[in-house]
């Protein structure tokens, strides 16, 4: 059952992830953003207010984050202990597997590893500190920041782009020369091969 959004401050350690991976480079980008405002109490508050983590209450009254995993992990790595959350669903009455199946149907979880392979729900880490690195998620974030596609509100849209790049950019290239991989991915993002993806923008003049 969905509820009226309620904003509160909670410990990051009290939140449960709903995905297996983040892009560590993308996390480092968020960490730099936090450091840029770290000297200002007002800007820190504004940063947190701009990155409210949406959560669903699940079995045993645990809070499951359905977005902003990169922000939560970045703040955790920066030694920040609390984050603002917005509760947008209360599913505490559901049995465990009914809960996860419902979350899956609503696209509120992604049990996929750093190769894009689907796993059991039990394989989703219990803490943000245990999230794995998916370098293609970092590539997708870098391409979006460079204007390769428009940011969308569709759940896990960046992971759809990550999976697209996963089939077109070699991982060895990505790990050996990230900037070169971004250049290649920018061309791919504006090609007709990517026209089914959320936020797709055709190349100028095409």
Summarize the helix and strand pattern as letters: EEEHHEEHEHEHHHH
- List the quaternary state of the chains: single chain
Overall tally of structural domains: 2
At the fourth level of CATH, the homologous superfamily of the largest domain is: Conserved hypothetical protein from pyrococcus furiosus pfu- 392566-001, ParB domain
- The count of helical stretches stands at 8
Q: Mind explaining what this structure looks like?
A:
The strands form two sheets. Strands 1-6-4-5-2 form a five-stranded mixed beta sheet. A two-stranded parallel sheet has the order 3-7. Helix 1 crosses helix 3 (69-77) and helix 5 packs across helix 6. It is globular. The chain is of the alpha/beta class and 206 residues long. It contains eight helices and seven strands; from the N terminus they run βββααββαβαβαααα. Strand 4 and strand 5 form a beta hairpin. The mean pLDDT is 94. The termini are far apart. The longest helix has 14 residues, at 24-37. It folds into two domains: 6-133, Conserved hypothetical protein from pyrococcus furiosus pfu- 392566-001, ParB domain, CATH 3.90.1530.10; 135-194, Helicase, Ruva Protein, domain 3 (Orthogonal Bundle), CATH 1.10.8.
Topology:
Layout: E1 6-11, E2 15-16, E3 21-22, H1 24-37, H2 41-50, E4 53-57, E5 63-65, H3 69-77, E6 82-90, H4 96-105, E7 132-133, H5 135-145, H6 157-166, H7 171-176, H8 178-189
Parallel strand pairs: 2-5, 3-7, 4-6
Antiparallel strand pairs: 1-6, 4-5
């Amino acid at each position: 059952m969905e509820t009226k959004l309620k904003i509160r401050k909670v410990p990051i350690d009290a939140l449960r992830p709903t995905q297996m991976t983040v892009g560590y480079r993308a996390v480092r980008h968020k960490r730099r953003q936090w450091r840029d405002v770290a000297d200002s109490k007002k800007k820190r508050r504004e940063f947190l207010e701009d990155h409210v983590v949406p959560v669903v209450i699940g079995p045993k009254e645990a809070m499951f984050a359905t977005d902003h995993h990169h922000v939560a992990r970045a703040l955790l790595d920066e030694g920040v202990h609390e984050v603002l959350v917005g509760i947008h669903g209360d599913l505490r009455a559901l049995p465990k597997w009914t809960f996860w199946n419902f979350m899956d149907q609503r696209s509120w979880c992604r049990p996929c590893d750093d190769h894009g392979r689907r796993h059991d729900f039990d394989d989703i880490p219990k803490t943000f500190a245990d999230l794995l690195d998916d370098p293609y998620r970092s590539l997708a974030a870098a391409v979006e920041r460079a204007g390769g596609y428009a940011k969308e509100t569709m759940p896990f849209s960046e992971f759809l782009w990550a999976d697209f790049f996963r089939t077109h950019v070699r991982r060895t290239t990505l790990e050996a020369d990230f900037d070169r991989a971004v250049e290649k991915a920018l061309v791919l993002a504006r090609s007709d091969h990517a026209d089914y993806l959320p936020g797709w923008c055709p190349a100028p003049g095409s």
